[in-house]
Amino acid sequence: MLPENLGPSSPEPWSEHDFAPIILFLRTQIGITLEPHRMGLLQARLRSRLQSQGFASFTQFHERILKPDPTGPGMQLLIDLSTVNHTAFFREPAHFTFMAERVSTFLKEAPNVPVRIWSAGCSSGQEPYSMAMVLAETLPALSPQRVEIWASDLSLEMLNAAARAIYNARDVQGVSPARLRRYFLLGKGPREGSYRIVPEIRDLVKFRHVDLRSNPWPLPGDFHIIFCRNVSIYFADEERMALLNRLAQQLRPGGWLAMGNGEILPTIPSSLRKHSPSIYRKES
Ligand SMILES: C[S@@+](CC[C@H](N)C(=O)[O-])C[C@H]1O[C@@H](n2cnc3c(N)ncnc32)[C@H](O)[C@@H]1O
């Protein structure tokens, strides 16, 4: 007997032909077009996830899950599996030193105006928590009333991990022993080998689910500093320009935008000035 989704004209389960509707769904419903090697990676990750849940083919997943509810959990699974989430504590460390100096200056200039920072595309949280740790070391009375740290991502899986704030030994490899002692709680019993960010640092970060391609963004705006590092590398050129324009609009005059060190921007919005290879300032 043929498996139930295999009619005479059904594609071979897990074949390229079987995967075609998923590629189309990604492009038309989510706006993601992946390079061939990343599409191959997604295909392998999705196959293993679907097989473990008892699906017989990509077609079956498409017919049963994606088609009846195109914006539901099936779509979220595709997003989670197709985004590249690599991150690290204090990645590109000069950005954090720069941020802390700018925050101190903003607070000196206007002590009663809270400084607002956004980690856009925060993955599993290392970036916003690094911001909070560096600020805790720089500012004597750091509180959510003085500095707001917003952090967002497209992937719910990543956001949940970020909010849990539990990391393993490999994740904290680049963290200095002094910071490990000060900002992490060591897991005990079944949690041995894990490191959880202390509540004082966790409480400084507010997480939101934001697709940077969607409009509007459910965030307050008027940011002093935005980090959007290693996110737009997967965007098409015109999407990246649209994103930069919108990020620039969300900055207050004199505010700063940090992109990833490896990100090449062919052009930048007219309201931004290049300060260094990956840092931009909005005209005052
Ligand atoms: C490579 S990680 C970078 C994490 C961190 N910014 C860093 O530099 O270490 C890229 C993150 O961008 C997120 N992302 C990709 N496309 C996005 C979109 N359209 N909207 C929001 N986040 C997105 C991914 O889910 C992923 O967590």
Describe this structure in words.
- With 284 residues, the protein is α/β, with parallel strands linked by helices.
- It folds into two domains: 16-82, Chemotaxis Receptor Methyltransferase Cher, domain 1 (Orthogonal Bundle); 93-282, Vaccinia Virus protein VP39 (Rossmann fold).
- 40% of the residues lie in helices and 18% in strands.
- It has ten helices and ten strands.
- It has helices at residues 16-30, 36-52, 58-66, 73-82, 93-109, 126-138, 156-164, 177-183, 199-202, 237-250, and strands at residues 115-120, 147-153, 166-168, 184-186, 194-197, 205-209, 223-228, 251-259, 272-276, 279-282.
- It has a seven-stranded mixed sheet.
- Helix 2 packs across helix 4 (73-82).
- The protein starts with 15 loop residues before the first helix and ends with a strand.
- The model is unreliable at 1-5 (pLDDT under 50).
- It binds S-adenosylmethionine.
- S-adenosylmethionine is lined by residues 83-87, 91, 121-123, 127, 153-155, 158, 210-213, 229-231, 260.
What is this structure, in a nutshell?
The chain is built from 10 helices and 10 strands. It has 284 residues and is α/β, with parallel strands linked by helices.
Task: Annotate the secondary structure layout.
Layout: H1 16-30, H2 36-52, H3 58-66, H4 73-82, H5 93-109, E1 115-120, H6 126-138, E2 147-153, H7 156-164, E3 166-168, H8 177-183, E4 184-186, E5 194-197, H9 199-202, E6 205-209, E7 223-228, H10 237-250, E8 251-259, E9 272-276, E10 279-282
Parallel strand pairs: 1-2, 1-7, 2-6, 7-8
Antiparallel strand pairs: 3-5, 4-5, 8-10, 9-10
The protein binds S-adenosylmethionine.
S-adenosylmethionine (SAM) binds next to loops.
